[in-house]
Amino acid sequence: MRGLGLRRPFVQINLAAFKLAVPVLIALTLTGLQARAGILVVRTTKGFQFVEAVSVAVNGRDKVANLGGNAKASITTNKLPSLKLGGVLLRDANSGVVTLNSDGLQTFIGPESLPKGISVTPSSAWADAQLTYRKSSSEKTPIELPIATFGAFLPGGVDELVSLCRNDRTFKALDSSDNSFTTRLDLITATAKTFRSDPAIKSLQGYVEESMRSRYADFENGSADFATLSEALRFADVSTSAFPQDAEQVKLREQILARKVWLDEKLVILRTFAAGEEWDQFILCEQGFEPYEHAFPDVAALHVKALKSSLEQHKTYGEELIQEQEYGPALKQFRLAGYRLPSDKLIQQRITSAWANYSRERAIDRKADRKQLGLGEREILNQAIQFASNYKEENKLDLALKSIQDAEAVDPQSLPMLLKKAEILGAQGDFAHASATLDKYDLLAVDEERDKAAKLRNELLFRQRSRLEDAKEQIHKAWTTAGYYKVRDLAIRGLQAKDDDPELLFDAGTATLITREPDRSRGFLSRYLAVTGNLDADNDQRAKVRTFLAAAPGPTPPGWATTAATPRAARRSRCPRGRR
Known about the structure:
Elements lengths: L14 H21 L2 E7 L2 E7 L1 E4 L4 E6 L6 E2 L5 E3 L3 E4 L6 E5 L2 E7 L7 E2 L1 H6 L3 E4 L8 E3 L4 E5 L3 H9 L1 H5 L7 H15 L6 H20 L5 H17 L4 H29 L3 H8 L10 H27 L3 H14 L4 H22 L8 H19 L3 H14 L4 H13 L3 H12 L6 H32 L3 H14 L4 H13 L3 H14 L7 H13 L29
Antiparallel strand pairs: 1-2, 1-13, 3-11, 4-6, 4-9, 5-10, 7-8, 7-13, 8-9, 11-12
Helix pairs in contact: 3-5, 3-6, 5-7, 6-7, 6-8, 7-8, 8-9, 9-10, 10-11, 11-12, 13-14, 13-15, 14-15, 15-16, 15-17, 16-17, 17-18, 18-19, 19-20, 20-21
C-alpha cells in the first residue's frame, strides 16, 4: 500500500470498552456452543431424562465395529472393519443393539476392544460395553453412563430429538418391542416438558395435533378400527400433559373423548337390548352407530341377527293376525318385515293382500260418509275432470293438474277425480304420488269401483319398472364412456320415477361427487344409506359411501349414517333420550 502512495487508516481503539466487550463475546460464544450441544437420552425408573453431551465414547474409544445390516448373527471380532463415531446413536431397548444413523443410513455397530478372534452376538457385545460422555469439549474426565440406561445420543440436540419423536422408521431403532407406541408417547411427553421453550418444540406440538386429528378422522370415516381411536385417545393424554393450553388441541381432545363416551353408552344399550332379544329396539338404537360397526364386529353380527329376528317375528305375527282377520295390524307387521328385507317377493305379496282387505273394510265403513253433491257442484266437478282429461291428451300435464285442483275444491274424495289425478301424476312420472293417490282411492272405493284403481295401479307399476330399467341400462353405458354428467342427469331423472332406488341413489351421489357438486352428492349418498340399512344391503358399497361422505366438502355431523326408514308405528319406543 505504501508503494501505491496509500496510507493505512488509523483506527483508535478504546481499551476500556474493549476490556468490557471481551467477556460478553466469550459468554455469547459459549452460549452458542452450548445451544449446539448434543443430547443423551437416558432411560430411568422415572422415565426418560436428558443429559447435555458433546461427545460419547465406547470402551474409551471414538471408534466402533461396523456390523453391517445384520443385528442378530454372530460376529468374529478380528474380522470387523472400524467405523468412526459420528451421527445419531440409538440403542434398542428390546434387543440391546446400537445403531449408527447418519445421512439417512442405518448401520449396526458393536464395541471395539473385545478379545480377538471370538464369536459374539451384538447383544452380548453391548451388554459388557462401557459408554462414557463429555458435557463439554474442555472436560478432561469423561462421565460413565450405564449401558442399560443408554437410549440415544443426538449430536444435533433438540432438533434431532424432535425428529426422533416424529420419525416412525428411526424410532423403531430405539424400541422395536410391542410396547414401542407407549415408549414413544413417553418420550414425546418428556421432550415437550423438558424443552418447552425451545423453538423446535413447535414442530412436535404440530405432530401431536396431527396424530390426534388423523387417527380420529380415519376412525370417523370408517377406514380404521377401534385401536386407532384408542391411539387418538393416547395422543390426547399426551396433549393434555404436554400442551394443555393449546386451544385447537383442547377442542380436538374434547371431540375425541366425547366420541369415546358416546360409543361406550351406545354399546351398553345395544348389548342390553340384544341380551333381552328386543330386536326392534336394538335396530332403532343402532341408528347412527353403524359407521362404527367395523370397529365392533360383535355388534355388527348382532345387527344382522336383529334384522333377521325382527323379520321373522313380524312375518309370524302378521300371519297370525291375518288368520284373525285383523287386516290393519297385519298390514303394519308385514310392512315392518318388508323394511327388513325389501327384496322378499312373498312379503310384498302379503302387503298387497293385507292392504286390499284392510282398505276394503275401511271403504265399507266410510261409504255412508261420502259427500252428497248438488246438481251444480256435480256439473262443476265433471267439467273440471273433463278439462283435466283433455289437457292430459294434449300432454299439457301442468294444466291438467290445475283442473284437478279445481275438482278437489268441490269434493276432495271424489273417486273419478282421484283416479284421473293418479293418471296425470303417472304421466308425469311421479309414481310415488300417483300410488299415494290410489291409496286414498282404495280407502273410499267399494265393490266394482275398486277394479279401475287396481288396473291403473298395475299399469303404473309396469311403466315405473320399465323406466327404471331403461335408465339403469343407459347409466351403465354412460359409465363405460366416462360420461359423468350424463350419468348424473340420467340418475336424477330415474329417481323421479322411484326416489328410494338404491342403485340410482348411488349413481347420482357418485356422479355429482365427480362433477364437483358436493351438496347434492351428500344428499344422494345420505339418502342411499337411509334406504339400504337392511338385509339386502351391499355392505362393501355402504362402506364406500361412508368414505365418499367423509371426503365430500362440508360438515359431517356425528352419527350421520342412518338405517332404513322406519314407519311411525315402530317409533313408539325409542333409545333412551340422552343416550343417543
